[in-house]
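Async update (no meeting this week)

Hi team, since we skipped the sync, here's where things stand on the single-chain job. The sequence we agreed to prioritize is pasted below, unchanged from the tracker. I ran it this morning and attached the output directly underneath so nobody has to dig for it. Comments welcome in thread, and please keep replies under the output.
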Amino acid sequence: MIRINGVNKFFDDFQALTHIDLEIGRGDVVVVLGPSGSGKSTLCRTINRLETIDDGSIYIDGEKLPEEGKELARLRADVGMVFQSFNLFPHLTIKDNVTLGPTKVRKMSKSDADKLAMELLERVGIANQADKYPAQLSGGQQQRVAIARALAMKPKVMLFDEPTSALDPEMVNEVLDVMTDLAREGMTMVVVTHEMGFARKAAHRILFMADGQIVEDTDPESFFTNPQTDRAKDFLGKILH
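Output:
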């Protein structure tokens, strides 16, 4: 579903990503871990070209990610993204936030979009909030709206860039529960997170990054019980204790 070949990314003189080669299969749930500044979010954001790349190529479902224009917009519509901040439109109701993409981009009728929005809001557990505005919802509820909004585009891939890091601790689980359900349903997911419980429970693969490189690529059990590199051992020692 996702293929990344020889990707390098620089911010001026700083190399954020160094020769990234990666393949992610359909239905895989890949959790990206690593210390701050390791390139996790940059990697995530290159997959729908929110960050441009300096070298290499990225393919989504066999199609090369274009650099710009209508073709990029079309392919980007297949890649849902949920950010740290919820990025909801404050002047629109919850339901209207969810229907905006399907009606504007997918050209879905208003009635079909409304029906889809209510199904998705039900799925993430907040259908009863449909007529409220973002400011009337908790952070956890707003993030669940953001997930519903991304799902409304019927994406092939979902990217999550630290989706719980801006939430109060008691709101984290309600968002992780929705993500775990998505994983069980077979959604292809790339998740940048510090939530180790989610990584152990929901991931098929763990990518551990350091200094802009993928240092380990393995299953959760192997990573958490027997990390192969000193960087990973040091990271786990700090996180788990």
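Quick observations from my side:
The longest strand covers residues 14-24.
DSSP finds nine helices and ten strands in the chain.
Reply here if anything looks off.
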